[in-house]
Amino acid sequence: xxxxxxxxxxxxxxxxxxxxxxxxxxxxxxxxxxxxxxxxxxxxxxxxxxxxxxxxxxxxxxxxxxxxxxxxxxxxxxxxxxxxxxxxxxxxxxxxxxxxxxxxxxxxxxxxxxxxxxxxxxxxxxxxxxxxxxxxxxxxxxxxxxxxxxxxxxxxxxxxxxxxxxxxxxxxxxxxxxxxxxxxxxxxxxxxxxxxxxxxxxxxxxxxxxxxxxxxxxxxxxxxxxxxxxxxxxxxxxxxxxxxxxxxxxxxxxxxxxxxxxxxxxxxxxxxxxx
Length: 275
Ligand SMILES: [Zn+2]
Description:
Blueprint: H1 2-24, E1 26-27, E2 34-35, H2 42-59, H3 66-83, E3 93-97, E4 105-108, E5 112-116, H4 126-141, H5 144-154, H6 158-165, H7 171-177, H8 191-207, H9 214-224, H10 232-235, H11 241-263
Parallel strand pairs: 3-5
Antiparallel strand pairs: 1-2, 4-5
Zinc ion binds next to helix 4 and helix 8.
């Protein structure tokens, strides 16, 4: 009798696990890595991200610095062209937030991109900025936020996940998943996600006609800035500096091929259609 009950429990657990896996398993666009991002709907992530970006524009002063704004608009729109359908329904918007102490940037679902003026201390050229923006947009096309939210629902932090999702996806939860705020630990993306964003972002920058070789000096300068008051995106969970530089060197040959193709007039707009 006991063993029958135990069997039922085991079968039930297996079926539940299979259902969770089936409904949550998806593939990361661009890299093809299997992930657990499917528990959160794309439409809801886009809607909430757009709302939160609108809120950011009222919470942070917006920079009118003509040089920074011109640089961001030019680089951002050139990258947007090659990102194409990797991002769902983008309504591109590029905003410079005025905070010289913040060496930070983010891209959100829906095609919303923000950089803080502190980023220009390390991103000194258009090539540098393209690598930063490419990296941020790669987090979006790889749906890292969907993955973090899905994992919060079914992983170790199931309790926290349930509280996050009580009454629907909250603004605080989605900002936490982007690495801003305290929910989901406010830790930013995992090292695997950061490496993935480095890889995909470098290709975006190169395809848009920006020199991927700039990445080495850019990340060297970023590491040199230290992390005392630094936000998570660039300093806490990124691969260690040495690992990142080794990885960039490995990625450079392919990125340089893409860059040469773009510079020879063959800018390859992305035609990969993501469902
Ligand atoms: Zn990142």
